[in-house]
């Protein structure tokens, strides 16, 4: 079934390179499927290495003029882009829900979240201030100037197809950079729609280019950008193995990198916590987008004294979640993105059971008149989880909560930090001294204290250890698209 929008031209079906919406160089197409049914409902170009090179040619040619545009004018274009995103929230939300699977309410919410980054960086464009440095001698002026890095290659994931492209492209444009972008093969439609709206907002030809490509062809597209010295920065959100490959392959040209990679977020409930608040915080953090977010709690630790009470409350809330397609108004959990996702969830649950875990609620695929497709999985709570289990070592990326009982603060901090990842961490406590001890002890780029909803455009988003480096959002997010030039002028006395 085709997707009908108020503005059907928001599904251009082609990729933007320079001023032209065009097919792939060999005219091959990539099918886009609905994860609720696995049925094909659209297609986009399956881009090639030649398309990737053409995109860099266009971005490189457009860079001198774009960087010379006054920051206030760049900001005005971004503000128009924000306004267009807000005006077309319903169409964009429907696109997200159809190609990614999240309920329509979440799709609309993602559009608002994506637009918030565009608005934020529109305002930050006019605040990219340098510094005047006190000179050590008379007759000298010393300055630190902020300048755009150049052509940026943005590689975005499927789980937030609007928010991730906005979070990368908006600061790049605000800084005066030009962009080549490759969205995830599962969710290219939302990205194409946003780029079309950016073009309508006044982004000049060549400043923003998008190449869509299949899983098979993605390496040839990205390898062109990695090898090209004209591409001065790579920004990527995705898995740690791919991030490591990008870092290695960028070394020959010493590109600047922003890598937002895998996570294994702990969620800790201490015995002095407000249990009802902790349950609500976990529901918000874990089940957004069906558990398919990089900051989802992946390991839940509950102190022994409150373990059983917490699990009872949690199981009641999880068991009441409504699973179904995005088209159903009551759906709270949609389908997983594809068969690979479902297979990983099943593998993690079966491994946990084999190693001594017990299912409290859920624990199986769903197939019914409401969930009439292969990619639905029941929201699940497991108890008796431990560090040996795959669900404790790998991101499940699905609606599964493994709960581990712990005794002491020192024990749980050691367990929480016993991972190569360090993106997000959460804990609930009402002891102000403990709050500061644990906040400082957790090895994580983001910490939620008595809060399950972390992301905001004004906050720096990113990890430590093997969760990557660089920050998105906030003033630090703009700085990641700029370099600092030191200017020393003498002979002034």
TrEMBL record:
The record's listing under SUPFAM superfamilies reads: ALDH-like (SSF53720)
Residues at the catalytic site? 260
Q: Which domain of life is it from?
A: Bacteria
Recite the UniProt keywords alphabetically. Answer: Oxidoreductase
Instruction: Identify the EC number(s).
Output: 1.2.1.16, 1.2.1.20, 1.2.1.79
The parts of the chain that form a coiled coil are: none
EC class (word): oxidoreductase
The record, for InterPro entries, names: Ald_DH/histidinol_DH, Ald_DH_C, Ald_DH_CS_CYS, Ald_DH_CS_GLU, Ald_DH_N, Aldehyde_DH_dom, Aldehyde_DH_Superfamily, Succ_semiAld_DH
Q: Which family is this sequence assigned to? A: Belongs to the aldehyde dehydrogenase family.
Name listed for the protein in its UniProt record: Succinate-semialdehyde dehydrogenase/glutarate-semialdehyde dehydrogenase
């Amino acid at each position: 079934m085709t997707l009908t929008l108020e503005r059907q031209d928001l599904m251009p079906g082609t990729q933007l390179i320079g001023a032209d919406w065009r097919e792939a160089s060999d005219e091959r197409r990539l099918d886009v499927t609905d994860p609720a049914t696995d049925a094909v409902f659209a297609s986009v170009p399956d881009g090639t290495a030649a398309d990737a090179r053409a995109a860099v040619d266009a971005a490189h040619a457009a860079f001198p003029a774009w960087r010379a545009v006054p920051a206030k004018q760049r900001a005005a274009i971004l503000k128009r882009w924000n306004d267009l995103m807000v005006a077309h929230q319903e169409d964009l939300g429907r696109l997200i829900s159809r190609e990614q699977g999240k309920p329509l309410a979440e799709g609309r919410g993602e559009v608002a979240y994506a637009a918030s980054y565009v608005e934020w960086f529109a305002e930050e464009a006019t605040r990219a201030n340098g510094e005047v440095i006190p000179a050590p001698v008379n007759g000298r002026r010393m300055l630190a100037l902020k300048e755009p890095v150049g052509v940026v290659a943005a590689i975005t994931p499927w789980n937030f197809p609007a928010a991730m492209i906005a979070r990368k492209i908006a600061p790049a444009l605000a800084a005066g950079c030009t962009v080549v972008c490759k969205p995830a093969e599962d969710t290219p439609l939302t990205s194409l729609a946003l780029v079309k709206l950016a073009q309508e907002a006044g982004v000049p030809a060549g400043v923003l280019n998008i190449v869509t490509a299949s899983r098979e062809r993605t390496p040839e597209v990205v390898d062109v950008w990695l090898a090209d010295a004209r591409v001065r920065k790579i920004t990527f959100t995705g898995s740690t193995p791919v991030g490591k490959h990008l870092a290695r392959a960028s070394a020959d040209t010493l590109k600047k990198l922003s890598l937002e990679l895998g996570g294994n977020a702990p969620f800790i409930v201490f015995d002095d916590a407000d249990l009802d608040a902790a349950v609500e915080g976990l529901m918000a953090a874990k089940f957004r987008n069906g558990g398919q977010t990089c900051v989802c709690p992946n390991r839940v630790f509950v102190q022994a004294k409150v373990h059983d009470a917490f699990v009872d409350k949690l199981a009641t809330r999880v068991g009441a979640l409504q699973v179904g397609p995005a088209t159903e108004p009551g759906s709270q959990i949609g389908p997983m993105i594809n068969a690979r996702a479902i297979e990983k969830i099943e593998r993690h649950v079966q491994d946990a059971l084999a190693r001594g875990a017990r299912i409290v609620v859920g624990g199986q695929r769903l197939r019914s008149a409401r969930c009439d497709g292969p990619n639905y999985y029941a929201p699940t709570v497991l108890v008796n989880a431990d560090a040996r289990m795959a669900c404790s070592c790998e991101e499940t990326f699905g609606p599964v909560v493994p709960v581990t009982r712990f005794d002491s603060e020192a024990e749980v901090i050691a367990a929480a930090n016993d991972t190569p990842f360090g993106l997000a961490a959460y804990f609930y406590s009402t002891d102000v001294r403990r709050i500061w001890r644990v906040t400082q002890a957790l090895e994580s780029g983001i910490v939620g204290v008595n809060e399950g909803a972390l992301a905001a455009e004004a906050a720096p988003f990113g990890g430590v250890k093997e969760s990557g480096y660089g920050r998105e959002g906030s003033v630090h997010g703009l700085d990641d698209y700029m370099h600092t030039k030191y200017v020393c002028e003498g002979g002034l006395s």
